[in-house]
Each structure stands twice: as C-alpha cells, then as structure tokens.
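Section 5: illustrative case.
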C-alpha cells in the first residue's frame, strides 16, 4: 500500500516536461509564439518533483516513531548522491583547470545552489538537488514539529520564506560571490522560496493517510490536469521579452502556490484514489521503468552526454529523446540501482 505506481509514472512526465522546456521543439515560426511560450513554461516539471518529494517522504516516514536517522539519511544519500557525483566528476574531468576545482567542490557538496552565479554550473539542472537535499535534511524536524502542533503547516513555510528574505537582505550587502544576493534568486532557486511546494506534498500525504480509504472521488484527476494547464497558460501569458512568466511577482505566486495546491495535489490524489485511463497508463510497466530511470534522465538530458549523443548520433529531437531514455534506463539498471542497493546494505 506504500507504493503508488501512477506516481512513479508521473516522475517520467515531470522529467520530460523539463526536457521540453530546455529543448522546446515548438518553434514560434512554425507553431506560433503563444504555443512556443506555453511549452517554454514546462519548467513546472520541477514543481511537480518538489511536491512529489514532499508527499513520498512524508507518506513513508511520518508515522515512523523513533525514526532511525542513520537509516533515513543513508537511504536518501544512496538514492540521490552517487549518480550525481559520478556524472559531475566526469564532467569536470573533461574540462579540468584551477578555477574548475573550486566550482567542482561547490557542485559535489550541493553548495552551488546557494550562489546565484554558480547555480547552473556543472550539471546545470542539478540546482534543484540543493533544494531537494535541504528538504531531506529538515524533514525529520518538520515531522516532529507538525506532530506536536498542526499549525506548523502554516508557521514553517512562513518562517522559511521570511528567513530567506532576511538572508538576502543581509548577504546582498557583501561581495560573497553572489551568495544569496537576490530576492528573485531566493524565491526561484532555493528551498526558502520553494518550501510551499514541499509542504503541499506533506499535507497531501497526511490527507491521503487519513481519508484515502473513506473518501471516494471522481474527476479530481482531470480537475488537477485542468488547473495545471491553466497555471502554465497563465505563466506563458505573463512572459515578457526573453523572461519567463515566473520572473514576474504574480508568476512566482502561481508557480509556488496555486500550481502545487490547486493543480498538482489534486492530480496526485486522483492518481492515487481514482481508477482512470490516465492512472492506468502511468502505472503501466513501461512508465514504471521510465519513472524509475527519470532521475538519471533528468541529470543527463542536458550536458556533456546529451551533447555527445547529439553530435555523434543525431540532432533530431525525437531520436535524441529516445536515445537519452535508453541510456537513462541502462544507467539506472546497471549503475544507479546496484550502487543504491550496495550502500543501503553496507551502511
């Protein structure tokens, strides 16, 4: 009962949305500017990942009394770090110099996610892992506080957002290599600004635990999809010049508040609690494999491996997409998962 097949499948969809965002095939001269701008906002796949992380960690660990912190952190480390470390190290070995050693250290420690100038260095899309790891680190504390007082659902996100503003106010006065130097950076790229997405997942997990057996619904899956569509459409209409919709204040509110609460959370509830064609497809064997390998796909879809495949295999968008999926599945089966299992058994 602790495994939701459709939510594994949705991981693949989220990764593919980020891929479309980075390599938008819907070119404006062919499909029109509005269509191009709509798919340009598919970075919201990251928002789906954040809500999903909040949900899964809470569903698995919230009711575990006397949580074994060593086991918890080993599990999280084994799941995320090895593949990231391997790919990051290979990347920097291919272009090593004195400056890169400093940036390499920032990357393998996830610290780069706190620096505006370095957030896209190394595996560029890996900036989101700093956000994820901060949540993993703080989640046990969140669970303790929420168990003591449910008001912490409101207090904790407000505290972290406020604390983020305080940090930027302080550090923007100093020249610290762009460390927390911008309110926009803090809201878009750090846990302080994205914490509501994780707390939405936490709230959904506790709601599912309490009401999943008794509360039966219809069409919530489709309502969630509709609101996700409307949020992405709104972001695309807020876009200006070369900026994204999330570069506006309203866009940030839509992406980190309305999208998780009104779109993603209902979609997840529907995928868990409703038997639909969508849940059946996402829960299928092929989507299970694609979902489990989606983390590797996310790490390799942009960077040296994608560039290599593009140069030596094909520049065709579809061929590259299929090739990246094949490589991701192979790396998952023969590198990521074996290392994950070994580390869990070892430690």
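Designed sequence:
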């Amino acid at each position: 009962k602790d495994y939701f097949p459709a939510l594994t499948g949705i991981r693949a969809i989220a990764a593919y949305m980020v891929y479309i965002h980075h390599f938008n095939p819907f070119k404006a001269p062919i499909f029109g500017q509005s269509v191009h701008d709509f798919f340009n906002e598919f970075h919201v796949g990251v928002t789906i990942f954040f809500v999903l992380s909040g949900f899964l960690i809470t569903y698995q660990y919230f009711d575990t009394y006397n949580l074994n912190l060593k086991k918890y952190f080993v599990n999280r480390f084994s799941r995320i770090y090895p593949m990231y470390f391997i790919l990051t190290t290979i990347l920097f070995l291919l272009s090593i110099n004195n400056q890169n050693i400093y940036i390499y250290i920032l990357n393998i420690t996830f610290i780069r996610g706190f620096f505006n100038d370095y957030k896209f260095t190394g595996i560029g899309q890996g900036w989101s892992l700093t956000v994820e790891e901060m949540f993993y680190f703080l989640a046990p504390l969140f669970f303790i506080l929420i168990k003591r007082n449910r008001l912490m659902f409101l207090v904790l996100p407000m505290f972290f957002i406020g604390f983020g503003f305080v940090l930027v106010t302080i550090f923007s006065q100093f020249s610290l290599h762009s460390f927390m130097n911008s309110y926009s950076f803090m809201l878009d790229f750090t846990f302080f600004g994205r914490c509501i997405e994780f707390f939405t997942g936490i709230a959904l997990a506790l709601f599912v635990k309490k009401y999943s057996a008794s509360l039966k619904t219809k069409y919530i899956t489709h309502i969630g999809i509709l609101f996700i569509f409307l949020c992405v459409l709104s972001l695309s209409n807020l876009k200006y010049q070369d900026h994204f919709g999330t570069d506006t204040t309203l866009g940030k509110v839509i992406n980190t508040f309305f999208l998780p609460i009104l779109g993603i959370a209902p979609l997840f509830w529907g995928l868990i609690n409703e038997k639909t064609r969508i849940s059946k497809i996402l829960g299928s064997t092929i989507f299970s494999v694609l979902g489990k390998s989606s983390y590797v796909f996310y790490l390799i879809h942009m960077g040296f491996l994608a560039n290599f495949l593009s140069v030596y295999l094909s520049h065709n968008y579809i061929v590259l997409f299929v090739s990246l999926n094949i490589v991701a599945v192979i790396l998952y089966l023969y590198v990521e998962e074996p290392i994950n299992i070994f580390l869990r058994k070892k430690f």
